[in-house]
Amino acid sequence: MEKGDRPNWENSMQFLLACVSYAVGLGNVWRFPYLCQMHGGGGFLIPYLLMLFLEGVPLFCMELAIGQKMRLGSIGAWTAISPYLGGVGLASVVTSLYLCLYYNVINAWSFWYLFNSFQSVLPWSECPINSNQTGFIEECEKATPTQYFFYRETLNISSSIEENGGIQTNQVLCLVLAWVMSYLFVVRGVKSTGKVVYFTATFPYVVLIIYLIRGVTLHGAINGIKYMFTPKMEELGNPTTWINAATQIFFSLGLGFGSLIAFASYNQYNNNFEHQAIIVSLINSGTSIFASIVTFAIYGFKATVNYEDCLERTRLLLLNTFSLAEDSISLDNVFEWIEKLNTTYPQQFAELANKLETCDLEVELDTAVEGTGLAFIVYSEAIKNMPLSQLWSVLYFFMLLMLGMGSMLGNITAIITPLQDFKIFSRMSTEVFNGIVCLFCLLFALGFTTKSGNYWFTIFNDYGATFSLLFIAFIEVITVSYIYGIKRFEKDIEDMLGHRPHWYWKIMWTVVSPLLLITIFIFYIVNYILGGTPTYQAWNKELGKTEVMEYPIFGQVFIGLLLVSSISCVPLTALYVYCRKRKHGHQKRQRTVSTVSA
Question: What whole-number distance in Å separates Cα of residue 537 and Cα of residue 525?
Answer without folding.
Answer: 22
